[in-house]
Automatic annotation (TrEMBL):
Gene3D superfamilies: 2.40.30.200. This is Putative phage tail component-like protein. It comes from the Bacteria. It comes from Natranaerovirga pectinivora.
Amino acid sequence: MLSFKFGNKDSYLDFGISMAKRPLLPSPSRRVTYIDIPGQSSSFRYDEKTYEDITLLVECSIKSKENLIRKIDDVKAWLFNTGESDLIFSFQPDKKYMAQVVNAIDFTQVFKYASKFPIVFNCRPFKYAVQNNPLIIVESGTTLYNPGSFESLPLLTVYGNGNINLNINNTEIQLTEVTNRIILNSEIEACYDNNHNSLDTKMNGKFPILKSGQNTISYTGNVDKIEILPNWRWL
């Protein structure tokens, strides 16, 4: 039975919804701008190195011998009130999309107790690992393996004091006057403490990126440990 999880609920177990078939899972389009230059063949290409959102069409059906209309109302409330949430398909339970329902859902009654309907999910470009467990670094020169097909934007918490130099794949990050801990959030490019007070002035360098494959992390200074939430992702 094909099903999906969305908003911490299971389509089949919680609502009796089944998927007619596996949806097409398109790759995201890369944002590249083409500019025609007079007198030159071809075009100038500006690659933003970013990707467009993707759209997933999920064809579903639902059955209920008790009260089909009430069941449909429950489904609508679930899908539209959830907003953006994790979307996990039963045929790929270790990966998730960040998705939101964007279409007006039309329920077509097939039989007395059954209805079919499409759901359109607007998803961010990448799939992420469902299990995003923190990794602990306690020794400089440690190597981490990124199993994803694309570079990840991790969340690093550096526990230590004073001036600290991080080196990730030969890219240096300088942290100054650290007190107990400092958090580097690569996804939103922000540096802050445990109470989310900005510490951007205490960081110099580019926010860390973990490339696909091997990554070497080293440091100097008074560091107790580095906790990394890796955010592995796939195209």
